[in-house]
Write a structure and sequence with these properties.
binds N,N-dimethyl-L-histidine; alpha/beta; three-stranded antiparallel beta sheet
């Protein structure tokens, strides 16, 4: 059995026993899961990455023109994507602070960026950005620009998304700005195709969770007895990924027995989609005012520049 993480075990055992079985989506991203996600981003049906990258290429000059000089760009996530250099090239920041919980990803992506930006001061911070953090002392005096691309905010339920946006505001401080990517509500067929691709990569990504449970937690789950399902939950305005039992199944995880009847599901991920006003409301709930919202011709995706609102009395 591979080395097991006690937090993974606790989440899986509690999640599979819950009245509505669910496992937190972060466990989808082991090495294999991260590789499969990279593959997803290149799929013809998966429009978000392509659309967001094109928006950044087109508008990062405009974003830069709305900022002052000498910014410290603080990226929430390791910055391993191709989007980071697009923003850095336009903004010419004084410093760059990538924050990630995985030191390994952080070092790899910081090294890659050092090659492309040899004169940029890079201060990686290994931490969980869901909480308020102390930024490196070297960027204390610089104006801060947060960067949170990828529509990752959509993977959190709105209450947790607001907590995160508020923590980001506290980390970045007064007068800071934030560039955030948010996926828009659109035709259900387009959304469903993006999470139900013809090549079956998203299915493999979802089912990989069961392989991971078997490998790391001594599970005996018959993976072929489950199938990937992506549905649009209109009431919650989100795509949901589930693993559905194709027949009655019984298995153990770390010695604990579980039984799923045919048709029962394990909820594995949410991907919330936000309308134009929804995204503003979400940001405002966390103390961020929208400065500008750039979208593509089809209005599939938004890149939003927001600014930290000073606290003020309200009637
Ligand atoms: C990482 N995140 C923004 C992706 C999304 O679209 O919600 C994760 C994903 N899940 C299935 N496909 C992509």
């Amino acid at each position: 059995m591979a080395r097991s993480d006690p937090a993974f075990r606790a989440d899986v055992l509690a999640g599979l026993s819950a009245p509505i079985p669910a496992v937190p989506a972060r466990w989808l991203y082991d090495r294999r899961g991260s590789e499969l996600f990279e593959e997803i981003t290149r799929l013809p049906e998966y429009y978000p990455t392509r659309t967001e990258t094109a928006l950044l290429e087109r508008y990062s000059g405009e974003i830069a023109a709305m900022l002052g000089k000498g910014e410290a760009v603080v990226e929430f996530g390791s910055g391993s994507s191709t989007k980071t250099p697009i923003l850095l090239r336009a903004v010419h920041p004084a410093a760059y602070v990538p924050i990630d919980i995985s030191g390994e990803f952080l070092r790899e992506s910081a090294d890659a960026l050092r090659e492309e930006f040899p004169d940029l001061a890079i201060h990686p911070l290994e931490a969980d950005f869901m909480r308020r953090l102390d930024l490196p002392i070297e960027v204390a005096a610089a104006p801060k620009l947060g960067f949170f691309p990828g529509s990752t905010i959509g993977n959190l339920v709105p209450r947790t998304a607001v907590d995160l946006l508020r923590a980001m505001k506290e980390t970045l401080g007064d007068g800071s700005r934030l560039v955030i990517g948010m996926d828009r509500i659109k035709d259900v067929e387009v959304l469903l195709a993006a999470y139900n691709d013809a090549a079956g990569v998203t299915a493999a990504f979802n089912l990989n969770l069961l392989h991971r449970i078997n490998a790391e937690l001594g599970g005996t789950i018959p993976v072929e007895a489950f199938r990937h399902r992506a549905i649009w939950n209109d009431r919650m305005s989100r795509i949901e990924m589930h693993l559905e039992a194709l027949r009655d199944v019984a298995f153990t995880v770390s010695g604990t027995p579980f039984a799923f009847a045919a048709g029962a599901t394990i909820h594995t991920e949410n991907s919330h989609k936000y309308g134009y006003r929804d995204s503003r409301l979400l940001l405002r709930a966390a103390g961020w005012g929208v400065v500008h919202d750039w979208t593509d011709e089809r209005e599939y995706f938004s890149i939003i520049l927001a600014e930290a609102e000073p606290p003020r009395f309200a009637p």
